[in-house]
Write a structure and sequence with these properties.
Elements lengths: L5 E5 L3 H13 L5 E4 L10 E6 L3 H10 L6 E6 L2 E5 L6
Antiparallel strand pairs: 1-3, 1-4, 2-3, 4-5
């Protein structure tokens, strides 16, 4: 279950989401591997769930490891809202 104000990161392949989870856990960043919600699932059936308070640290670590998610969503008021990913300068 995904609670309001939690984020999910979707990836383009199961191998990438599994690697991302491993990298984040090794870095001491809390996340959980979950089935991708059908409202936003796009190809890969897995997603990473994490708290909004960890957003910057998690996305920065994924960027450092070249494992940027395809899309990131925040759940608010029962709905998923797309979070624009920051582009490289």
């Amino acid at each position: 279950m995904i609670n309001d104000d939690e984020l999910i990161a979707l990836f383009n392949a199961p191998t990438r989401v599994l690697k991302a989870e491993k990298v984040l856990r090794k870095a001491g960043l809390p996340c959980r591997l979950i089935p991708a919600p059908r409202e936003v699932a796009e190809g890969c059936a897995l997603a990473l769930r994490f708290n909004v308070s960890e957003q910057d640290a998690i996305l920065a670590e994924l960027h450092r490891q070249a494992l940027q998610p395809r899309r990131t969503y925040r759940k608010q008021d029962g709905y998923f809202h797309l979070i624009p990913l920051k582009q490289d300068p």
